[in-house]
């Protein structure tokens, strides 16, 4: 057995390796999307946060751009009665708050937050495109009212519209439970400076949520009522597409 003096260099070398590792890697055990330890200088922190905040802002803009004025679309364009329209809106909104159970299970048990957000954001975008097409293409929506005569929507027209609407509800289920915690994952809890930055991230996160809600509840509603529903749905679809694209571009740059 070696003496204490002989073992000291090995102990010092081990401590030096631990100190170097604590500088290079996060101390909270977080990993990247490949499952490897995270190098602080290459990823995380504020490098990824603009893409996360942009995704959340666009998702809220799209959601409230639909939800705020959906009763008007169902009554004025699909010619539903007020009771049916209100029932359909509340059912859809309730579904949007149930589907996060699916996204949370997939993120925690199988895919991880990154891939869950990426997959469900893509589903969300497809739903927005479907909704935009249903409001833009004459063959996918009923004819305009002539006097008091309003032709009812056909089953096919309803099917296309509600297919897009519930794809959006499914897409929201993968974004809602993951995006805020995914942003928090970018900061190392064992680093006091990064804990402060995490608090700043949540301030910007809720600012992004409210900016998206403000734009959709004012500008987009005006577009829908005064310009057209195709454009009113198309603008948030475009922003959602940009958010998904930037999210994947950030992935390929890491």
Automatic annotation (TrEMBL):
Its main location: membrane. It comes from the Eukaryota. Signal peptide: none annotated. It is a multi-pass membrane protein. The keyword Repeat does not apply. Keywords: Membrane, Transmembrane, Transmembrane helix, Transport. It is found in: Membrane. InterPro entries: MFS_trans_sf, POT_fam, PTR2_symporter_CS. The chain crosses the membrane at residues 114-138, 158-179, 200-223, 229-249. Belongs to the major facilitator superfamily. Proton-dependent oligopeptide transporter (POT/PTR) (TC 2.A.17) family. This is Uncharacterized protein.
């Amino acid at each position: 057995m070696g003496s204490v003096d002989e073992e000291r260099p090995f102990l010092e070398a081990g401590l030096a390796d631990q100190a170097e590792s604590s500088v290079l890697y996060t101390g909270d055990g977080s990993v990247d999307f490949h499952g490897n330890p995270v190098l602080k200088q290459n990823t995380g922190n504020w490098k990824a946060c603009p893409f996360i905040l942009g995704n959340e802002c666009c998702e809220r803009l799209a959601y409230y751009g639909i939800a705020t004025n959906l009763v008007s679309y169902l009554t004025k364009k699909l010619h539903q009665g007020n009771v049916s329209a209100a029932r359909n809106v509340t059912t859809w909104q309730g579904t949007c708050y149930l589907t996060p159970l699916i996204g949370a299970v997939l993120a925690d048990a199988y895919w991880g937050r990154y891939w869950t957000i990426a997959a469900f954001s893509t589903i969300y975008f497809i739903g927005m495109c479907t909704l935009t097409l249903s409001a833009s293409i004459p063959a996918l929506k009923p004819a305009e009212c002539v006097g008091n005569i309003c032709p009812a929507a056909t089953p096919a027209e309803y099917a296309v519209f509600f297919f897009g609407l519930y794809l959006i509800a499914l897409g929201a289920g993968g974004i809602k439970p993951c995006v805020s915690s995914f942003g928090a994952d970018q900061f190392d809890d064992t680093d006091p400076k990064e804990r402060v930055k995490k608090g700043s991230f949540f301030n910007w996160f809720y600012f992004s949520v409210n900016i998206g809600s403000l734009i959709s509840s004012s500008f987009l509603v005006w577009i829908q009522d005064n310009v057209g529903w195709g454009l009113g749905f198309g603008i948030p679809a475009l922003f959602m597409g940009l958010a998904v694209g930037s999210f994947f571009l950030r992935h390929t740059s890491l």
